[in-house]
Amino acid sequence: MRRRDFLATTAAGVTAGTITASETPDAETVAVPAASKPVVSVPRQGRLVADYTAADHRDRLRAIAFGTATIQDCLRRHLVTNYLPAQACYNLGEYPATRPWDPGEEDEAELDRLATLGVEVLQVFDDWNDSLRLFGGDKYSPVNREGYARFLAMARARGFKVLTYVSPCFLQRTDPDFDPAWSRPGDVLVVGYWNMARLSPASPGWRAYVLRKIARVIDEWGTDGIYVDGGYLMNRHAAKRAMPPAADEIAAFTETPEEDGAFADLLALMYADVKRRGGILKLHVDGVDKPRTDLATYDYLWVGEGVQSADAMREAVKDHPPYVVPCLDMGFTSLESIDEPYLHTIPFMQFPVAFGGRIFTGERGFVPGVAYHDDFWLKRCRDARAIHRENPALLHTYSAWDEVPGSPRTRERWGEWLARYRPLVEEGTRAWLGIRSSDLFAAPLPAEVVASAFANRRFRLAVANYGRTTAEITTASAWLGEGAAPPASRFTIPPRSLLLLEKPFDG
User: Of 139, 92, 90, nearest to 364 (Cα)?
Assistant: First the structure.
């Protein structure tokens, strides 16, 4: 569907303003190492509660007291700590390819642009490594060792944290290291150029192999952390549960659709290893899923692969434990407006990923000598390649997950929403997500309206209208909107839009 710009208005008819990065309260800049030329550093919030004055603590405690007194029930409560919401997936270049990608001045400029937008964390996908062994590497080493080291230096000079891709669940069946004893017969994933076995987390041989490999990736390339591609779904589907076990497999754990035994154990061991090194672990399981376990397995959870409905994804992930990083898979869904990703995520203290790096040209789908499966992934490559060859300036696509041809406005809008989101999730914020019962409103909220509260030195509300008609809400006292309008207690929320409010306190 055609995108449309979003305007939220208060009852007084004032257009909701957009907070720019320079207007974000307590903004500061990270000091970065000296570089050969000036670089743009990543903007950070003043996030150390230890630096609060007595007045700051008084304001925070007063805001929390207000929330405690007025909110009786909600979907989830959370204390915000160590949260980096501004994350982007970085495309290093095409893989497979006829020659390795090689970061240079184009990447320097792109990293500056991402820093200006406010990105804090960069995640690289599977194309960072040489999984087909085309250039002398493997799935656990870069396509271009010197080039990736150069990219990491570029990124860290700007204050970015970089999460390097690994997988404890997949290996090409053609890889010389692959042992069929590690995998259940027939448990494979064939997509695009990937012809992978799903490896059993209950296999001691696979564990010995992959944990050692991932530890080397962390030590050599992932000191900031790793992005973990899971995908082990054996317990979720009856047909898969009926598969015979791998030859090298020990049934040590309870395995049910509600409890991931071996998979969760493997993830928890990886997570502990990353935290021991002071890094970040970002996890993707599948679709909108999370690990079925009480064990600590991630800092951030990536969701959205193959999802066809933004509304359905919101409902599926709204109560996932923080912190969730949604990514609508644009090969399977479409957006009603440029602001839809933020409508679905911000009220549940989630923020969507951005895309950046080199343009996704689609050439990776047409490399001589590489065996492909003609599917949705190859279609994405075909569509991007056709546009890139006809008019490269029209292509603003950075991933097979991204829109084709995309728009530069998408990233601009991401930065604008980030500036509005950051004040809600400052370090030390107490959040009440999905308020069910409270004294904040003079009348019950309409059925399609959801409100969440965020208390720090200020008390703020995020109110979303998921319905397709205009909603009217009345608060129990006066609130400030984002514009210059005076405090009000009646607000109009257009269909499919988000309203941000702030509670004024005396003194």
Answer: 92
Phi and psi of 380, rounded to 5°? -60, -45
CA distance 92 to 460: 38
Q: Give dist(CA 279, CA 298) in Å, integer.
A: 11
Return the ∠ at Cα 398 (arms to 394 and 401), rounded to 5°: 115
Q: What tens digit of pLDDT does each residue of 78-127 get?
A: 999 999 999 999 999 999 999 999 999 999 999 999 999 999 999 999 99
Residues 6+ positions from 32 with CB-CB distance below 8 Å: 39, 41, 156, 157, 158, 159
Q: What does 418-478 look like in DSSP terms, one character per residue? A: HHHHGGGG-TT-EEEEEEEEESSBSSPPPTTEEEEEEESSSEEEEEEE-SSS-EEEEEEEE
DSSP symbols for 168-188: SSEEETTSTT--GGGEEEEEE
Do 91 and 125 contact (CB within 8 A), yes or no? yes
How many Cβ atoms sit within 10 Å of the Cβ of residue 349?
25
Distances (CA, A) of 129 to 52, 135, 229, 277, 451: 44, 10, 13, 22, 43
341 CB burial (10 A radius; 0-12, 13-18, 19+): buried
- pTM score, two decimals? 0.91
Residue 143 is given by DSSP the state: S
Q: Helix H segments across 260-375? A: 262-276, 310-317, 340-345
Helix (H) and strand (E) counts in the chain: 10, 20
pLDDT digits (tens, 9 = 90+) for 422-475: 999 999 999 999 999 999 999 999 999 999 999 999 999 999 999 999 999 999
- Cα distance between the two ends of the chain: 48
Which residues pair with residue 157 across a beta bridge? none
Question: CB–CB of 155/162 below 8 Å?
Answer: yes
Q: Which domains, ranges and CATH numbers included, belong to the chain?
A: 21-81+427-503 (2.60.40.1180), 167-211+229-278+288-296 (no CATH)
What confidence tens digit (pLDDT) does each residue in 334-363 have?
999 999 999 999 999 999 999 999 999 999
